[in-house]
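Ligand-bound model needed. DGJ.
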Amino acid sequence: MRVPSFLSVSSYCPRRGLPVAAALAMLLGVVRAGAASPPDAIDSGTVWFDRDGRPVNAHGGGMLFHDGTYYWYGEIKQGQTTLPDYNASWGGTRVPFVGVSCYSSTDLVHWKSEGNVLPVDPVVNDLRSDRVVERPKVVYNAKTGRFVMWVHIDSGDYKEAKTGVAVASSARGPFRYLGAIRPNAGVFPEDMPEPMRREFETARQDNLMEAWVQKHPEWRTWARDFSAGQMARDTGLFVDDDGTAYQFYASEENAVLHVSRLSADYLSHTGKYRRITFDSREAPTPFKWKGRYYLVTSGCTGWMPNSSRIHSADAIFGEWKNHGSFFAGDTGAASVSYLSQPAFVAALDNHRLLFMADRWNKDDLEDSRYVWLPVDGSSVIPCVEWRQVWAMRKLLSSSAPGGAASKLSAVTP
Ligand code: DGJ
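Prediction:
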């Protein structure tokens, strides 16, 4: 696989990636880590089965730990994959929307299907089968006792770029859909330079924003979605230790990632938001580790894999720094994230971190697989090293090196 040179960035992870040939052989199943996998094995890229013997169908997902149980939510990819004419130019293959799945487990290996918790609904516009409903993330609001799901809602051509919210009184659903929006309409971001903010505020009052943009074309991105609200595609959720929730989403035609503070009930946006990365990142997966905020992202190459990167900040509304590859090495297969795209970083009950990613099959989306890896939290910057087969039991029984991450329920959806 040819790797574009712009994807090669340095990595803080100490180890080197596998050479391409070895990695691809392994990914194709030529080399396996032993004939028989232990019963608690995580074997990335193979088909995972639930307790009923059906393939686990939970893509672009997220994890919630609640009352001693892990819940894994994800997109149900089911049915024939097609490439609509309107997406042909960029390879945007699709399956009909069927719903959002939920699975439960206490050992992160054996998963019980809890069913379809946000099913297709022909009378709800956003939940019709022709809609895009992707990357569901669920958090628990301790104040309201409700489970809140935020999800990317879109038209089949991805032009609507909205975020939708649903609520449930049980982690097992069903979720009641409340609607979708482009967030933060009529509000400028926190990071807008002060002189520009003053001029825009004045122009806004006089209905002269378009005139200002023509005078300063470089300001267009700041003004473009001001009235209609910000575009919101790939989404990630994060609940800080104080219970405040934030949504990360790919905005401005995926060129810029935003972070936005949610209301106390987690059901709406507060108008406080910031633009945090500017180099076309998506699949934002936030987490907190040793008091610092991290974000793993992918590049924007549709269903095709690319280099996952890790960013960090000392405050959510602070300056976010790109540290380069999240995968050890960033050469060969590491530079395409071992054919995966980030979905979620889960802080486990023992404070260890689990990286969850999708290995998409763009020609048969139902046959997409999962890549799960333990995060090395002892590195200067957290990172992942490739392992084909590894024991979840060991990750669950080991203690966190050099400090603890916040609990899953207080860190990630
Ligand atoms: C990349 C996104 O991360 C996925 O969730 C999905 O929207 C694909 N693009 C569609 O091509």
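Helices lie at 20-27, 194-205, 209-215, 220-224, 392-397.
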